[in-house]
Amino acid sequence: MGMRVSVCFKPSITYSQKMFNQRIEMLSNFGPGSNPFFSIFKPLKHSPLTIIHLSKTLTLTLAMATLSGPDNRRPMCPSCSKPTRVCFCNRFKTPVLENSIAITLLQHQLEKKHPLNSAKIATLGLKNVNLAYVSDVVSEAHFDLHFLEPNHDLGHHDSVQNHKKIQSLQPADISFTMGKRGVKNQDFDQLLGDQSAIDGVRYGFSVKRVQRGVDGNNIEEFKMVVPQGSMLLFPSENSIGVEEVDFDVKNLIVLDGTWAKATRMYKENPWLKVLPHLKLDVDKLSLYGEVRRQPKAGCLSSIESIVYALKAVGEDDHEGLDCLLDVFESMVGDQRRCMNERLNFESNIGSI
């Protein structure tokens, strides 16, 4: 697709006509479908300064697309989901840390492909990790809880299922429905005060979440085992410190997302309220630094929270846990360098 630009230069405007023509000729070589950025432009009737700014913007976009490769995509590592030039898979100690206290990650769907998501370090660096994806409640979500026998063990990567269509809902020991305005079952609050029910939950249970979409279809979002000795790592008003825990912690449930997403996941998964809550007494600044904003000191990334919590509740291999923080710090360093490279690149292009 060719591009025609109407230009009327005034004597007060100093700009290289030859350079401008070369850029326009370069852009006109793109055929239909080459890049949607270029296909939206029509003949322009703007001032010379506007056209100069547009030319620089198009040149920057073209250069960035060229650097990304012929298909505008960078080669990615299938394991850590990072660009191959900043892949961190070889930075882990081998073999990976065989943590005796399991980690169950409830990850918000929007965090799944976030370039700065730190939970990936936990799934790659810890052996005993289970992962389930959670989305926001669209219409309503139905929950089924089944009590387990005492001392039910949590297996590795075998207790979580994600997104499966189902036709009907089966009866359970505890069932309730969550809508956009809260829990629809009036007796759910009574459940939280029922000691026999709480005791049954503390021995362990399985939980299934079924999301009902706007089209009326039921999708099984996840089904997982929450074994005896589980705690939720979340700073609620009912949270307790490590010194108050009076049982052996076998499994830590961690909400992975921004603080806003984590709070929403907590509210939209009321079954979490039946678990004992653990809070960390940490006043450290997150290693995220300036690459991802944290609300305040003590608001840590998922991997930092996991490491400090595992240390607090009795995981012995502190050296292996510190290695995970080293990997995280190197990932943040990679991101900081990429940000600086981009800023320098844009500055150089803008100075042409």
Can you tell me about this structure?
By secondary structure, the protein is an alpha/beta fold. Strands 4-8-7-3-5-6 form a six-stranded antiparallel beta sheet. A five-stranded parallel beta sheet has the order 2-1-10-9-11. The chain has two domains: 1-67, no CATH class; 86-333, no CATH class. A hairpin with a 2-residue loop joins strand 5 and strand 6. The longest helix has 33 residues, at 318-350. The model is unreliable at 1-15, 27-44, 60-71 and 154-159 (pLDDT under 50). It is built from eight helices and eleven strands.
Write a concise synopsis of the structure shown:
With 352 residues, the chain is of the alpha/beta class.
What's the N-to-C terminus distance?
26 Å
The proportion of strand residues reads 15-25%
How many beta-strand segments? Answer: 11
Summarize model confidence as the mean pLDDT.
Answer: 75
Task: Write down the domain tally.
Answer: 2
Report the major sheet. Answer: 6 strands, antiparallel
Note the total helix count: 8
Read across the widest sheet, the strand sequence of neighbours is 4-8-7-3-5-6
SSE order: HHEHEEEEEHHEEEEHEHH
Report the structural category.
alpha/beta
Q: What level of helicity do the residues show?
A: 25-40%
Q: Which value, in Å, is the CA radius of gyration?
A: 26 Å
Stretches where pLDDT is under 50 for at least 5 consecutive residues are 1-15, 27-44, 60-71, 154-159
Approximate shape: globular
